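Changelog-linked ticket: adenosine-5'-triphosphate example.
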Amino acid sequence: MSPNVLIVDDNRDILAAARIALAQTGFSVTTGSDPEQIPALMAKTDFQVILLDMNFTRGVVHGEEGLTWLQKIRENDPAAVVILITAYGDVELAVRAMQNGAYDFIQKPWDNEKLVSTVSMAVELGRSKREVSLLKRQNQFLSECNGTQVIGSGPAMRKVLDLVEKVSRTDANVLITGENGTGKDLIARLIHDSSERSDAPFLPVDMGAIPESLFESEMFGYERGAFTGADKSRIGRIEAASGGTLFLDEIGNIPLAQQPKLLRVLETRELVSLGGVSRRAFDIRLICATNSDIQKLIEDNRFRQDLLYRINTVEIPLPSLRERKEDIPELLDHFLQFFCRKYKRPDLKITPSLMERLTEFPWPGNVRELKHLVERAVILAAGSPLKAEDFSLRSGVSEKNISNFNLENREMSGIAEAIDASEGNLSRAAELLGISRATLYRKMEKYGL
Ligand SMILES: Nc1ncnc2c1ncn2[C@@H]1O[C@H](COP(=O)(O)OP(=O)(O)OP(=O)(O)O)[C@@H](O)[C@H]1O
């Protein structure tokens, strides 16, 4: 669908020239010569960009009319993207307009190419503003119904929350490390929500999901014509998070060749979009996360040390669930209550002996796996109290559980599953595992089972 652009100017020649230039490039253009028409036009059409003259009364050149109409437009639609048309050399007025919320200004007489590129950028900004506001509403909804509450009052989690509280008060770059499902995303959101940027967007980007060939255009944006198929300009993820927090998840997946480009942009806090020439400043708080051993990636020359220095001003390591077993009963109770409410089931209980078994389970997929299995148990259980089978610990792996490929994790969960299957009979468990009882004891001790 072509973007709708409204142009309001009392000079009909200006209207005609702008209409021709923009319509030729695929915009759907509406014009008006009297600003009084603006409210009615805005009620009828959803304009992605409004181009507004500064002076409408003959002989008046101080621009107050433009500023008044800018304010009215923004009252009507706070997300409206307005570009002001100013007389040549009236930079002071243009600056005032931008302080009052205009996106940009264009001086008369303009160069058509500049007009088209300014309007294209403005359309993109409006689009990403709407996306971000949708994302914000989704985030809010998710945290309300999914409980972004961070559960865990044991010493390991208290240490994490203490760090979170300290970094939230600053704008420092944070690196969150931990196995899959330990809550890296949750902690990143918590830092954002507790920071001064909480009213601005929190924009998560999965670095593993961006193909190398699209890295620059996705992150830094691109200009129209930058590559085949770039039929309009687009801002990148960094600018889309402007004013808020950019959360780069799976940072270990950034291709090595792209790392110096990201480093430069983070150092200078300025970027040039693909195919562009001008530098644009941005203002973001950066949080990164990884489940990889980043030091190992550096040793293997797959991650740059200087980029790590840039992103890990403060590092927050998240403990695996095995390392904070004390929180497991609390997490089970929390999710049990949450899913019983969600699925309108009566209060399902976990007996103390099952609680003990679940606390001893190694949970290779960490909190995500625990949450997922509680949800399944609540949906499928015949009644209260819940039984071990309701948790199907034997198939207890979560979709995203990459740490499951770790041999030690596999051994540990294999042993826990065998003990589970033999209902605590260790001779039988050793038999199932094809090892001696003594070896089983040794391994149980090793894994704290
Ligand atoms: N301490 C916690 N309290 C409550 N819920 C938690 C906690 N930690 C994690 N969760 C929940 O577990 C699930 C997985 O958490 P999250 O996505 O934050 O993990 P992650 O470390 O980012 O995982 P991945 O590395 O796979 O992206 C989410 O539903 C999250 O809400």
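Closing comment: Example verified and attached. The pocket of adenosine-5'-triphosphate is lined by residues 150-152, 178, 180-186, 249, 291, 367-368, 371, 400 (CB under 6 Å). Residues 394-402 have pLDDT under 50 and may be disordered.
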